[in-house]
Specification:
- With about 80 residues, the chain is of the alpha+beta class.
- The protein has one domain: SH3 type barrels (Roll).
- About 20% of the residues lie in helices and about 40% in strands.
- The chain has a 6-stranded antiparallel β-sheet with strand order 1-6-2-3-4-5.
- The chain starts with 5 loop residues before the first helix and ends with a strand.
- The mean pLDDT is about 85.
């Protein structure tokens, strides 16, 4: 029986950027998946703040003062947590 670590539980409690609510600020916690290198080249990295601006076929987000369109597939690989107001 595999043991569950605290880190595993923290990751499981995160939501993907594609699931996140529009208009809210989030902190990126984990980037994982086949597109993580592509995301890092776009400027996404752990601990960075991101705001989801629009949702659709692609989602629009604000990262470091720059608006970016990201596919739903890539946004699924970005795990975020809401920022406290």
């Amino acid at each position: 029986m595999p043991s569950t670590t605290v880190q595993d539980l923290k990751i499981d409690s995160l939501q993907s950027l594609s699931q996140a609510q529009v208009g809210c600020d989030f902190q990126i916690k984990v980037i994982e998946g086949p597109g993580c290198d592509q995301l890092r080249k776009l400027g996404f990295c752990e601990t960075l703040q991101v705001r989801k601006l629009a949702d659709g076929r692609n989602l629009i987000c604000n990262v470091c003062g720059t608006r970016m369109a990201v596919s739903k597939e890539l946004a699924e690989q970005v795990k975020v947590t809401p920022l406290e107001a």
